[in-house]
Design a protein that fits this description.
heterodimer, A: about 425 residues, Rossmann fold, GMP Synthetase, Chain A, domain 3, 9-stranded mixed beta sheet, 11 helices, 23 strands, globular, B: about 140 residues, alpha+beta, Alpha-Beta Plaits, 2 domains
Chain lengths: ~425, ~140
């Protein structure tokens, strides 16, 4: 594949120049955060670090970490580094009040985010001649807005379909000859199956490439999507805390994702000690926003287990590459692209009058996630009427859907039937083979 | 004249019914009637037993979720149309039947129907007025 770059100078910059650039940005950023974010200033003061201690990117390790708990404590404005009047947008995760992340953006932040997405689209061969169908959700979710903006910057004809409505997706895709598809990998697989059922063969589907992220997927799934749609399928990574999709992206080599490290500096740490690990070692991925203005998280712990590599890439990009995340250091599940914490299920159960005796069972059938929640029936709730028990299951599923944004199948089961190992209930059974 | 029905919540899987009946038989509790309602996930066993107090105790001790509910028992002739006649009575009285099951008497030419309704007293009154004979706990014990 002929290599195009959206911002060639940055994407192919020498290691020395990149370090220089990162260092300059970090020094400025730490000052900005220290002066404008009392929450982080306190953390730095407690650690005995002042902005003067940060002279280059090599000093980054001196700074304190931020975690999801800090985001919760500081909700909603505690980590905001710009006056609200300078902000133009928020994006948010699907979580509940306790877990919800609200990120703020200035126009400059939006621009750099869209640049990152534009780099991703260009790296898969996208140019202004392409028709880019964005089937990620638009709205609070970062997927749609991010890729939409990137597609504009590249100059593609953008089809802002948002998620769902498969019939309409296929109609626009085929009538307007979409060449690039952006969505979750499971939705790509679903669209592929639907196209196949309608009689389309890979040769008759106009697509040539897909950018698929927001949930974990395997090499097998990649191969199957590539075969049904007749495309090359590329991974993209991001999180609302940093910006959204485009923090890192795959290139033609399809062997990991280049991190846009001029904006987001990646570290791998030992999750227990916080010690920075050398390149190639597996640990927790930590990101530092080097030049975001409104919501500049320094050393944010993603909880994703990952590996970084600086091996030379055939695409010519010198940006560090991260592997697909290999797991989590917490109990978060990603189901149909949505972050789910078992504690959220627990919250719903207690609120609805049940005991917190439950088990989440996740599987992937025909490339789609199944999501079942078994809940132990309580003596107070038990009735001899089948219709009432079915209504109770539906009501619980509805309450969980409100909490999580996705619909589980709820099954009420007799007490003490949920598997316990060593006396402790097994809360999550994930049968998907994702690694 | 309510009839006590034992209701047991079980998983819909192999062996669940036999483990319940096994506990009852080991405790010398006789089954008068048994009906099962099931969905893909769970089953509800509805039992009329010779000694519901003892049955509730042993099943609870064995970890089962039990609920004792009052049902209405009516005696009907063992002829075509008799059940329909009884149900018509309830229908006319605007009484909704949640579920029912029937069992045959051993000697008499009669069937017994267990009815689960919202308002037992109303159902009983309507059936008695229409000439039906209700059955009592004592009748069950004698079976």
């Amino acid at each position: 594949m002929e290599q195009n770059y959206f911002q060639k100078e940055i994407e192919t910059m020498s290691r020395e120049d990149m370090k220089q650039l990162q260092s300059e940005k970090l020094v400025k950023q730490v000052k900005h955060v220290y002066e404008n974010v009392p929450y982080y200033r306190d953390l730095m003061d407690k650690k005995g670090v002042s902005p003067d201690d940060i002279q280059s990117i090599d000093d980054l390790h001196k700074l304190p970490f931020l975690s999801k708990a800090d985001l919760r404590d500081a909700y909603p404005y505690g980590l905001l580094a710009k006056p609200l009047e300078d902000c133009v947008r928020i994006q948010s995760t699907s979580g509940t009040t306790g877990r919800r992340v609200v990120a703020f953006y200035t126009q400059k932040d939006i621009d750099l985010w869209e640049d990152c997405c534009a780099r991703a689209i260009t790296a898969v061969g996208g140019t202004k001649k392409d028709v880019c169908q964005v089937a990620y959700g638009y709205g609070l979710f970062t997927g749609g807005p991010g890729l939409n903006g990137g597609s504009h910057k590249v100059g593609c004809l953008t089809l802002p379909l948002s998620s769902g409505n498969t019939e309409r997706q296929i109609q626009f895709m085929t009538d307007l000859s979409a060449t690039i598809l952006c969505c979750t990998p499971s939705y790509a697989a679903y669209l592929g199956e639907s196209l196949k059922e309608m009689g389309y063969t890979p040769e008759t589907i106009p697509l040539k490439a897909g950018i698929f992220g927001a949930e974990p997927w395997t090499e097998e799934m990649r191969k199957s999507i590539e075969a049904t749609l007749g495309i090359k399928a590329y991974d993209i990574y991001g999180l609302t805390e940093t910006t959204g999709p485009g923090v890192s992206f795959e290139c033609s080599e399809q062997t990991g994702m280049h991190v846009n490290e001029d904006h987001f500096y990646a570290e791998i740490i030992n999750p227990d000690t916080g010690e920075v690990l050398p390149e190639g070692e597996k640990g927790e991925l930590v990101f530092t926003s080097l030049d975001k203005e409104a919501f500049p998280l320094l050393r944010y712990r993603t909880r994703d287990i990952c590996v970084l590599s600086r091996k030379k890439c055939s695409c010519g990009r010198t940006l560090v590459k991260m592997a697909k995340p290999m797991g989590r250091t917490d109990d978060m599940l990603i189901i149909r692209g949505v972050n789910v914490f078992p504690s959220q299920i627990e919250t719903v159960l207690l609120k609805e009058g049940y005991e917190p005796n439950y088990q989440i069972v996740v599987d992937r059938v025909k490339n789609n996630d199944t999501f079942d929640v078994n809940v132990e029936m309580t003596p107070e709730m038990f009735t001899d009427k089948v219709s009432e028990i079915i209504s109770m299951e539906k009501a619980l599923a509805g309450a969980m859907k409100t909490m999580l944004g996705i619909n589980p199948s709820v099954h009420l089961v007799p007490p003490k039937t949920i598997a316990r190992s060593e006396g402790k209930a097994v809360r999550v059974v994930d049968k998907r083979k994702l690694i | 004249m309510a009839i006590k029905q034992l209701t047991v919540f079980v998983e819909n899987k192999k062996g669940t019914v036999v483990s319940v009946t096994d506990i009852l038989s080991k405790n010398n509790i006789n089954l008068r009637a048994l009906s099962i309602a099931e969905t893909q996930d769970f089953g509800i066993l509805r039992l009329i037993v010779s000694d519901e107090v003892a049955a509730e105790k042993v099943l609870s001790e064995n970890g089962y979720l039990i609920k004792v509910v009052d049902t209405v028992g009516v005696k009907i002739g063992d002829q075509p149309g008799k059940l329909t006649a009884a149900l018509n009575v309830l229908d006319k009285a605007d009484i909704n039947v949640e579920y029912l099951y029937a069992f045959m008497a051993r000697t008499e030419k009669h069937a017994y129907v267990v009815l689960r309704v919202e308002d037992n007293a109303a159902a009983e009154a309507a059936l008695v007025e229409a000439g039906f004979h209700m059955i009592s706990e004592a009748d069950i014990k004698k079976l």
